[in-house]
């Protein structure tokens, strides 16, 4: 190497333990980036459903689906005159409306009924 190359090169010396810590932190950052990229891909791949598909999944009539839209139980998106639903929103609504058949106490059954019918005051519609 000539003098010009040597002057442009900066050498940093560090302990091996410090280098290992730095590499570990870089790996954590890289894993975080990979997870976010995977989440972005999954968000882009979100499946959209028509009203007919949602009625089939829920076993609901057109009027019931309309009531779910009106009350905010299932979010929807309107394109022209067509309502579309995200599969994740429909799945969330199903979870909110499910009753655990293994629940035997009257208080537990009452709470599940209130959650299912949307009468539970401490349950927010956004969760």
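Sequence proposed for the structure above (127 residues):
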């Amino acid at each position: 190497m000539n003098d010009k190359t040597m002057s442009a090169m900066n050498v940093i010396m560090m302990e091996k333990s410090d280098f290992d810590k730095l590499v570990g932190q870089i790996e954590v950052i890289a894993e975080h980036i990979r997870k976010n990229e995977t989440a972005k891909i999954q968000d882009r791949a979100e499946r959209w459903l028509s009203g007919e598909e949602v009625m089939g999944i829920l076993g609901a009539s057109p009027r019931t689906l309309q009531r779910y839209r009106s009350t905010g139980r299932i979010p929807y998106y309107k394109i022209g005159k067509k309502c579309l639903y995200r599969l994740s929103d429909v799945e969330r609504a199903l979870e909110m409306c499910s009753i655990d058949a293994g629940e035997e106490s009257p208080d537990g059954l009452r709470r599940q009924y209130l959650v299912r019918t949307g009468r539970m005051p401490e349950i927010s519609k956004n969760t």
